[in-house]
């Protein structure tokens, strides 16, 4: 996904993207915004701006394949053979058993999850001014946790029926937020 996103953003041949193994969404984002003027902006605001833009860019890049990509389609998009793609992603070392690769869903999850972490930080930092009530803060943080669980279930597809049910039980019993953690 990062390889295709870098190509579509026109940064695949930059040294930061070309000479790294493996290329990640974070590296793509950092390189894409490497010349951005951040003067006068808080670190949180910069992260929110960047992650929001990358979520949009990934949706535009992968949106034409909502059902996922085949190996052939990914290789074609990159202008390489499927064997070259396999070598680039170290498939011999990390075998992948899939016919279709959900690049849109995975990119949306990665960027939206990082955005939730930044928003969590923002909420915690804003509570230092004591203008927010504990209930407001708890609800806002809980909402982010619930959104994370939804994303893990729907976009990253790393949850399961039992964990989804456990989260619903916790929320129904008064938990403000419930999500899977760790390895699922």
UniProtKB/TrEMBL annotation:
Its EC number is 2.7.1.6. The keyword Lipid metabolism does not apply. GO terms for molecular function: galactokinase activity. The keyword ATP-binding applies. Keywords: ATP-binding, Nucleotide-binding, Transferase. Residues 139-184 form the GHMP kinase C-terminal domain. This is Galactokinase. It comes from Coemansia umbellata. The gene is GAL1_3.
